[in-house]
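Example record used in the benchmark description.
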Amino acid sequence: VQLVESGGGLVQPGGSLRLSCAASGLFFSSNVMGWYRQAPGKQRELVATITSGGSSNYADSVKGRFTISRDNAKKTVYLQMNSLKPEDTAVYYCKFSDEMGDYWGQGTQVTVSS
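Model output (structure tokens):
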């Protein structure tokens, strides 16, 4: 499984960004896709996940601001990030999990700064 992320960048506080992660290769139809982030000097943490059936889960810090969604036909997961805060600054990683294992994208930088 290969994962290609896009959509990161620099945004002012209160702004929005949309991340995308496209999966390719062979994998089971029952899977979980998600977004994690890692800020400098901190451990990687969960942001949000979504199952192939559409059930989602969010970190408390992003609830109400971020929305995860997926297009199974396009094998793509999205993360809509609104009301961004400086503390959201991190490298965001896409993760794919199925019966065969866990796979990670290369990461995309999100910087929230004025």
